[in-house]
Structures are given as C-alpha cells and as structure tokens.
Design goal:
This protein has 330 residues and is of the alpha/beta class. It has two domains: 122 residues, Rossmann fold; 200 residues, Dihydrodipicolinate Reductase, domain 2 (2-Layer Sandwich). Helix content is 34%, strand content 29%. The longest helix is centred in the C-terminal third of the chain and has 19 residues. InterPro entries: Gfo/Idh/MocA-like_OxRdtase_N, Gfo/Idh/MocA_domain, GFO_IDH_MocA-like_dom, NAD(P)-bd_dom_sf.
C-alpha cells in the first residue's frame, strides 16, 4: 500500500497534541515534512518527531514534489491564502476548523480546490468517531422517540493566556470560531438539515481585542427543534452534547474531545440507562485514514466541502446576531 505523504504548514500546538501523532499512527499516512516561517522552529519540531524534512517557509514545502497532502493548522485568517496556494500546487488539503473567516471565503476555498482537482476537508475530527454514527443510528431507530432538542456546551478558561492568537479579532479570534463551531456543526449533522434562524448573546471583551470570549445562543431548525448552546474561552471547562427526544436522551460527555477511555455513549430511556463503549478510538487517526482513502479513490468523502460553507454561514449569522443583539434568519 502506498502511503499518503503529508506536510504540515505551521508548528501549532494542535499538531503536537494530536495531528502529528495521528498521522504517524495511521494505517495510510507518512509525515514527510513540516514548515514554519522560522526555520529553526521547523527543524526543532522535525527532530522532535522524527520528520525527515523541514522548511523555513510554507511555500518551500508546497514546492516539494514528494508531498501529496498538507495539514493547515495556521491562524484562521491565513486559511484561505494557504489552502488555495496548496491547491494550486496540487496538494490535497486538510484544514483546521473553521475553514475560513466567513462563508464567502469558504466558498472561494471550495471552488479553488475543485478547480485544482484536490480533496479538501475541514478538520472536525470528532465527526469521524464511530460513536457519531451510532448516535445517528439510535435516533433513526426511534429509541428516544421524536427529537425535541439538542444542547451543546464547549468552554475553557484561557483568558489569562498572553499573546494568544484566539484573542486577536482580525485573525479570527473568539469563542464561536474556536469552540462554538463544534456544537453548531454537531447539531447540523444530527438534524440533517440547515437551520432557519439564530439568536446569540456574547461577551465581547475589551481586554481581549473585543473578540467574543463567551457566547450563548439558540439555533432554530425546521420541525420545531432547536439547539441551545454556549461556548467560551473565559469559563470553567465543559464539553458535552445532549440529544433529547420524547422518550429518552443521549449524552456524550466529553463530546468533542474524547480520549480513548472516555469515548462512550450514555443513553437514558425512562428510569433505565445504559452505556455503550468505550470505543477506544482515536478520532484524529480515523480522520487521517479517511482522508487518505478518499485521495486514493477508495472511499467517498464523509462530508462534502459545501458542508464547511454552510457551517461558516451559520457562524456568520451567530456573530451577526451577537453584535446586533437581534435574531438573524438564514
């Protein structure tokens, strides 16, 4: 089997925590190169993880003919520029969430990748975990009855972090971009339809370049079902998804960042409850392998690139509602 040869643009912490180990542990991938604008940082990271090649610029990595695909964990405002540059260099692209700064940028990215004939995926790794498919199966089977509500929370306290790119408004900082995108994408995935309207309240902090450090909202879907969510970078840590039906409910806790020991499903029906799992699965590895199989023509994409445009459209509406303090229809 020919392994997909990966390069990474940037030395962001998410690479250390998850993506570098996932590619190296995958069945399908080989991590061949890493780039940074600071060549010494790239070289240090390459030595740390046994990556054969390092580059002192992103373009130099894109010019490497041996690289098949790139992972882009750069700040949000750089996603469009470097995803399109990668596509034009003939590289397949796995880009960190959110795909862009707004829906228009996301659409331009999708069109550029389609024109170049490369595979594009947004790095929502949780969607590749088998428990997501199982949750959809439980709902479709009618065990929890008719769907009535979805609740999602994702918060942490990073307010004291100095020099954090998530605290820079022009770079795409803020809680909705960073963690709110998870419950928003999950609700759309569970519902299988696009929302109709949103109402969001947010804390725009002057201490943090007026990015939304906390946001709470209501997302209205067809069929009288709504997502209630909150997300924050200045709150106690929480990470949970609850799906409520007429006869029962499903809880994922933690929901969006499970470990192999905590990736189970809790199902509550009346006075009875059960747990399924843990599955012991690394969603980042699953994401890497699915990406490679799509590139090799062995599988269809689990999620079409247009899904990223629709999620950005929802994020745009949430930010618009929070800034105007008005309900926004989609």
């Amino acid at each position: 089997m020919t392994r997909l040869r990966w390069g990474i643009l940037g030395v962001a912490a998410i690479g250390d925590r998850a993506v570098i180990p996932a590619i190296q542990a995958s069945e399908t991938g080989q991590l061949l190169a890493i780039a940074s604008r600071d060549e010494s940082k790239a070289r240090t990271k390459a030595e740390q993880y046994g990556i054969p090649r390092s580059y002192g610029s992103y373009q130099a990595l894109l010019d490497d003919p041996d690289i098949d695909a790139v992972y882009i964990p750069l700040p949000n405002h750089l996603h469009k520029r470097w995803t399109i540059a990668a596509a034009q260099a003939g590289k397949h692209v796995l880009c960190e969430k959110p795909l862009a700064m707004n829906a228009q940028e996301a659409q331009e990215i999708v069109e550029a990748c389609a024109a170049a004939g490369v595979h594009l995926a947004e790095a929502f790794m949780y969607r590749h975990h088998p428990r997501i498919a199982r949750v959809k199966e439980i709902i479709a089977g009618g065990e929890i009855g008719q769907l009535r509500a979805i609740r999602g929370v994702f918060t942490y306290n990073g307010a004291a972090s100095k020099g954090d790119i998530r605290h820079v408004r022009e770079w795409g900082g803020g809680a909705l971009y960073d963690v709110g995108c998870y419950p928003l994408s999950a609700a759309r995935l569970i519902m299988g339809v696009e929302p109709e309207a949103v109402t969001v309240h947010a804390l725009f902090s002057e201490e943090h370049d007026n990015v939304d450090m906390m946001a709470s909202g209501l997302v209205e879907f067809p069929g009288h079902v709504a997502l209630t969510f909150d997300c924050g970078m200045w709150a106690a840590p929480r990470n949970e998804l609850e799906i409520v039906g007429t006869e029962g409910r499903i809880v994922l806790n933690p929901s969006f960042l499970p470990s192999a020991e905590t990736d189970d499903i809790a199902v509550y029906i009346g006075d009875f409850s059960r747990r399924e799992g843990p599955y012991g699965v690394d969603a980042y590895v699953r994401q890497s392998d699915q990406f490679a199989r799509v590139v090799r023509g062995e599988e269809l994409p689990a999620y079409r690139p247009e899904d990223s445009v629709n999620n950005m459209r929802l994020i745009d509406a949430c930010l618009g509602s929070a800034r105007t303090r008005q309900r926004v229809t989609l």
